[in-house]
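Appendix B. Extra example for self-study. Work through it before the problem class; the solution is given directly after the inputs so you can check yourself.
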Amino acid sequence: MREVSVIGAGMVKFGKYDGKPDHLAYKNHEELGVEACKVALKHAGVNHRKIEAAYAGQTATAQIQLCQRVTVTLGISGIPMYNHENACATSFAAFRQAYLDVANGVHDLVLVFGAEKMSMGRSGGAIVLPEGAMFLQDIGLIMPAFFALLGKRHMEEYGTTREQFAMVSVKNHKHSTMNPYAQYQQELTLEEVLNSRMVCDPITLLQCCPTGDGAAAVVLASAAVARQYAAKPVRVLGCTVHGGEYKASKGNFTSIVSCVNAAKELYEIAGTAPEDVDLCEQHDCFTPHELVTYEDLGFCGKGEGGRFVEEGLSGFGGKCVFNPSGGLQSKGHPIAATGVAQIVELIWQLRGECGARQVEGAKVGLAHNGGGIGPEFEPGLISLAMVAV
Amino acid sequence: MAKEGPYGRLGLGEGEIPLRDGILGFPSSPKEKPHLIASKCKSCGDISFPPKIFCGKCEGQDVEMIPLSSKGKIYSYTVVRQMAIPGIEVPYVLAIVKVPDDPELLIATQIADCEPEDISIGMEVEMIIDKVRSGLTSGKDVIGYKFRPVKKQT
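Solution. Structure tokens for the complete assembly:
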């Protein structure tokens, strides 16, 4: 496989583009997607006519062929176009396909984006399937409940505390105050997080990611082409996606086993270890997920996730900065935009363009994106990517 | 509505559909207890619920359907307090239950007849057949399983 680089990255501020009072001016999927793609193309210094293929991440909110609806406005046409769906890992799946196509010599210069608009949906934008579609949803096992069951058992086995889960939210909200692209940019105290409304014990409202709208885009290039555009291309050291594993959905529920396995594979492909990673954009949809992921990705031992966050090892000045962008908790989680938005933050960080939230001397970044529920107690998809300068 | 025994419904009533076909063992008389139907691998003995047509452990294709014990223990739990799925009223208690048939098996379930503050890990529970949600797409009530705390003999 050939070396692949990300040469441009862009996004729109996440938020609610529904035109309501105190919200952002109304924008549809197309407008959000176009804006993010324009920023990414400009960041890359690439003329849109040079793009050889385009890959979109879209969920059901966008109905059909978002890739075509966005690229038509950019003046991109007559090239291969793909639309990907994979729940919360939607645009990450599009990114991986684009990465594989460049790595395998199919294309040299491609555009990937994800655009989402949840603000107009019912249930606050949550995606609910009709009954009969998914067993666990049919009995009421919604996403926060999945991570609540994981967190509760983690408390039982390892003595993890409610406060430690809440610290994930406090940390990520603090990071978000330095990110103008974040949906929420205010600091929260531990008391505010713990005393907010209980959603699924031990997860309170301020430990849940918000719903929202947004878009993010990146431009990928083969090594030879990347050198024509970027002084400092960010290399993709590896990108892997794992569907949830049947075998892993038994025994214990204190880890995401498919994540443990995907991480082993990624470290091997990328030739890196957790000690090499300076920052990680992690899928902190609900706080127990980030805490358990410290362990699953090998940043600390099994059961030590609570201590890891409490001792500040996942914040600035720690072992690895988790979610310098503010993460899903506060940057927001417009489902189809999230995966690529994680890559965007990594690229900006590794190019040293993040201002107040810059992770000093960042050389290696990791993105971790989960999507949906798979076989019983496993996610539908775990996606990881390692990038480096 | 269908007839009820001490462990819930004895069958499906008018306008009711099962949570899934082939997972509920209805009691044949009010004196009997209901059970869940799981798949068991004929090669390695691994048990799956909901039942699968293959073995999740050794990937063998030869499985048989077996009844699961109707008693188990709470492995983990949460209380859902915010409506996210139309057709299920909040608050409701969700849990993972372990049964003695296979200590590895994790069963996701709603917990019935239990105040949110009364539930705890390790609590003994027993299975019943009950309505798990109102079906909004089908317009029919969905009948499935729940577990409830085992009442102490007085």
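Self-check: Chain A touches chain B through 38 residues (CB under 8 Å). If your reasoning did not lead you there, revisit section 3.
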